[in-house]
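User: Second chain of the day. Same drill as before.
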Amino acid sequence: MKRAEGLRANSLQFTLEKNPFRILGGSVHYFRVPRAYWEDRLLKMKACGINTLTTYVPWNLHEPERGVFDFEDELDLEAYLRLAASLGLWVILRPGPYICAEWDLGGLPSWLLRDQNMKLRTTYSGFTDAVNSFFDKVIKKITPYQYSQGGPIIAVQVENEYGSYAKDDKYMPFIQQALVSRGITELLLTSDNKDGLKLGGVKGALETINFQKLNINEIKYLDDIQPQKPKMVMEYWSGWFDLWGGLHHVFTAEDMILVVTEILKLDMSINLYMFHGGTNFGFMNGAFAVGIPAPKPMVTSYDYDAPLSEAGDYTTKYHLLRNLFSSYH
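Assistant: Same format as last time:
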């Protein structure tokens, strides 16, 4: 396929090669799935009618010690991108540096905290130096897989839900420049919930919204702050995560499919978070730091009540989605 013009957001619809393009996306994190099962999960995703894979990149696994990098086995990001391409899936990459993802310290490596003055997710030099060092390593691996180079990556996300944090107004421009200066040329996106939209954007990146229940006023707000642009739900929460001591979260298939149907009727693009949750291996489950007296730890499972279960099994959600998506491509 000749590559002339990648994903663009210059009108009410995305275009790819100047043709209207709707993103039907799903999140599967390579680091939450044993490598032997990557192909199985992505084939099932493709068979459901998904055209775009989204994944985070976990800094704390790729640089477990300062200056020591790991891109082997389950962390072979390039192999994952090649696999997606071979199956005909586009990719939206979300390299952080902060990813949230209910992941230990939101994917930031714990060694950052040895600096007693550390200010995470700001332009504090101790943080930006570490980000620059990591990006030097990881972005170099990513750039050859961009659409313009013949690869599957059609868009790259700048940080993650910064609007909910927003401690430093120079931070998002810093991350954006860190990506662009290292050769990222595809469409840039940001991702926030409704409240975060006010503060999470950065000039030159398309803002997208995250939610589970559809509120038409939130869509209107996105339209108001970003007129004549395509609208996308970057994280449509297909389920929810579980905390130790709590019940397993269930968001019924019927409720989910009603909302997804409405989103598509509104001519929006969508990314299901998660399409397949997988597992928080080791001690990577993180904690939900809201509540007194202590944060509540996540469980090892990241099943998320997603369309593909933690074990990779089909669910009712999967079949309903497949039926729905079949009329959109």
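The chain has a mean pLDDT of 97.

User: Great, on to the next one.
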